[in-house]
Amino acid sequence: MKERKIFGISWNVFLLGIVSFLNDMSSEMIAPIVPTYLTDVLGVGKAASGSIMGLIESLSSLFKVVFGYVSDLFRKRKIFVAFGYLLSTVSKGALAFTRSWWDFLTLRVLDRVGKGIRTAPRDALIAESSEKGKSGKSFGFHRMMDTLGAVAGPLVAMGLLAFLKSYPLERAYRHIFLLSAVPGIVGVLLVLFLVKDKGKEVKKKVKGISALKSRNLRMFLVIVALAALGRYSYAFTLWKAKELGYSVLQGLGFYAVFNAIYALSAYPIGYYSDKVSKKVVITAGFGVAALASLLFAYSKSLSMLLLAFVFYGVYIAIEDTIPRAYMADLAGEFEKGTVIGAYHTVFGIFVFPASMIVGYLWQTYSLKVGFVYAATVNLLAMLLMAFLVKD
């Protein structure tokens, strides 16, 4: 029976897009207030804040190759996707009860563990639910929905902060943490009752030569590792806005602009990557990353800061979408979870020191120096991708 489609996307991919919209709305309700919560409520210093944010960003990826492999082994994806979303949802809501940086870190780590459990199996399920040669379109749609949730999240947070303006800031933050669990729970229910597994039967063995033995893929993973060293946490962009004198509420507005650009560009970029070379699009993404970082480094006016957030949104849309589709295209049918998980794991390991380095440069020199460092790393990654990876 031919699978039902909606907007030219398979029903499974559409549903997973809705789930990601809800989960990211949940995550982004709290993401813009977390940097201020860390520094102003919990009293964590600049370098330590950078390290904590980097650790949080990195930890999820350490689990991705493991659960990608396990989901390949059993040819079952949905159970890992549902459990991962559930763990993240519970840990986000529980932030309402944190009293120290240790409580905060423990719950954020659990959130990232949940992401680590679900991401590779979910991406493999998206690849398996896509038409051959159109993985970029599917991943682009998923990323668009994910990011529309990220647009909605800060806007909901802004509305809640305005509604709770008579409350002490700390108390308002705790209410937002608790309410963030609601859309996440709805997403978990959608996965459990509507999403379908697409893998082969558990007992069926599919053999082949792993794409991970390819020199081209290994070189790409080396470049991914390098570029990840220049992928600072979003928190630094909000700290930049704060440094220029903008309030927390205005920072939420900048973050909403970034996510709007991210959401609007993800689907057309994914669609376009199916028509041309995914390698070219990824290479261009590193160049856009360098440009965004330089704009953040030298921003002094509102227009320049807004432009930095625009280019940052385009960069993240490219690098959070196309490499997954690229890896899915390279992987054999028997190893999509493993190969996509390998990408996420390599990326995650090197993202952690990136935020530590930028945090150190911020504390020792200035935030400007941290952004210039990130721009330099991304320019190098662009050159290596252009000349060392074959199309």
From TrEMBL:
Q: By its UniProt entry, which InterPro entries does this protein fall under?
A: MFS (IPR011701), MFS_dom (IPR020846), MFS_trans_sf (IPR036259)
Output the PROSITE patterns linked to this UniProt entry.
MFS
Q: Where are the transmembrane segments?
A: 7-27, 47-70, 144-164, 176-195, 216-234, 254-273, 280-298, 304-322, 342-363, 369-389
Family matches, as Pfam families: MFS_1 (PF07690)
Q: Which domain of life is it from?
A: Archaea
| Keyword match Transmembrane helix | yes
Q: Which residues form the Major facilitator superfamily (MFS) profile domain?
A: 12-391
The UniProt keyword set, sorted, is: Membrane, Transmembrane, Transmembrane helix
Query: Which molecular function term from Gene Ontology is one that the record holds?
Result: transmembrane transporter activity
> Which PANTHER family does this one have?
C-METHYLTRANSFERASE (PTHR23518), MAJOR FACILITATOR SUPERFAMILY TRANSPORTER (PTHR23518:SF2)
Query: What name has this protein been given in UniProt?
Result: MFS transporter
**What organism is this sequence from?**
Thermococcus aggregans
